[in-house]
Each structure stands twice: as structure tokens, then as C-alpha cells.
Amino acid sequence: MMFFRQLALGTFLLGCSLPALAIDPANFRVNADITATLDDNQSRAERARDQVEDISASMMLNLSYFRPLGQRGLMILSWFGEGERFDEVELLDRNTFGSSLALRWQPSSAFSAPIVEWNVSVQDDNIRADQRDSTVIKTQLFVTRRFTDRITMSLGGEYRNADSRSTVFDLEDSRFFWNFDYLLMQKYALYFTYSHLQGDVFSSAQRIFCNGAFATDILPLINASTAIESDDAYNETFCGEWIAYRLDGRTNTYVGGVNMPVGKSMSLDVSLMHVDVQADLDNNYERNLVRASLLKRF
Questions:
Q1: pLDDT tens, position by position, 41-53
Q2: Helical segments of 76-228, H only
Q3: Average pLDDT over all residues of the chain
Q4: How far is CA 279 from CA 137, 225, 245, 282, in A?
Q5: Residue 11 reports pLDDT greater than 80
């Protein structure tokens, strides 16, 4: 873990110092996107009474610097900022800032030659409910290959660690993912991604109802949890008393979507995500998220 923290810190410092150097502006790219998300189980709760539906809007700006490494390699340094605002649970409003380093390598210039990428990123998530503030470190290794002029696939793994101000939101997990892209009519990109995650998950649930009665059926989740505490965001928003708890779980995620061009430098991306979590002692839940994003390249 110390290795990843040192590497992430080095990435951040390198990212901060690079703009002071004399670098060709042609090697920079700026991307922005605006996203609307509908989440039918934002609280990640098992029981229907605890499931909170919410809508959020987010905006992200990404600045990337590209530098060739020989004839087959490429280094990408990125700096990004994102803000997200929620309609129902406003204490989940988030501002994020971070940087990343990616290294790509292709063994040959053949059409079907795979592209190998390793990346590491560090970001600071500042959330209105302070207990959820986190420093997130993530690293990925994956391979992408074109099989035809229409079909592209990726296969890889990811490790993520979130160090928060509280115990419940200290999260560590590993993820395997597979992605399939299909170019339809040389214009529309259809995609599907499957992910399997092993590690920490968290949920929110009512411990005391609005009428003052205690929830007597949450003992299994309390026994299975590796950490539990009061949930500030939900307690400030709803009546009764809410708790947040962390579990060791296995998560399967399925994402399907389409990316459609809008003009020369914009596109519209619409996707549906289904999340299925199987945690210890049969503490399970599902989520469905619908996203629509407008992406712009400058």
C-alpha cells in the first residue's frame, strides 16, 4: 500500500510541475462532459424501505498532455476536476480534483496488434458530508485489441483504495473487467462492459424509523458489517436515524450504452448500468443507473 501512495504522490507532483515547463501546446488535449444520472438505489440498500432514488448532474473538465516514448510508446499526463450535485440528498454534493499518469505500448504497427496500458491516478473527493471525504488511489492494467474495423475488445484489472475521514468509507477493492465495442454504420459506437469486483462495499439503512420504532430486522447486516456508524448525509436529509455500514462483498456490474456523434467535436453517450452485490451473510442489493452525457473535445 505504501508503494501505491508514494507512486500516486509522485504522479500528482509531476502533474503540478509540468505546466511550468516549455511544452508544445499541440500535445495538449482538453475534454469536457456534462452528465445527468438517475439512480434508483443511491443508498445501496437491500430493503425497499431504505432505497433512495435520486437524480444528479455533474460536469468534468480534463486536461491531458501526450508525449511519445519511442516509436511504440506513449505517456499521458492528465489533470481533472469534477463537480456533482444531487437533487434529493444534497449533502452528497461532491467536488473532485486529481491527476493521473498512463503509459501505453504497442508491440507493432499491425492493425490487430494489442495496445497495453498501465495507469495510476490520485484524486481528492470533497463531499458536503465530511465523513465521506476521501483520497482515492487507483491503478489499472489492461489490454485493448481491434479484431475488425468494427469490433474492439479490452480486458484488464484494477486496484482501488479510498482513505476517508471515517471508518465505513475506508474502502479497498480489486476489479476485473471486460469491454466490447461495436461500430455501427461507421458512426454509432455500441458498447458493453462486464466487471467483477471483490472487496469492500457500503450501504445505508434506517436503524430507527420516523415514528421512533427500532428496525429489529437489521441484526444480520450488523453482524456481517466490518464497520458501522451514523450516516450524516441521510440523517440530515430524512427523519428517523440512519446508519452507514461496510461489508465484504462480491459485485457484478453490467453496462450497456451507445455513443452518437453530435457535430465534429461532440458526442452524446447514453448508458444503463445494473449493479448486483452479494455480501456476507446474505446481505445483498441491486442498483440501476441511467446516464446521459454530452462530451466535448476542444
A1: 999 999 999 999 9
A2: 219-224
A3: 91
A4: 23, 9, 12, 6
A5: no
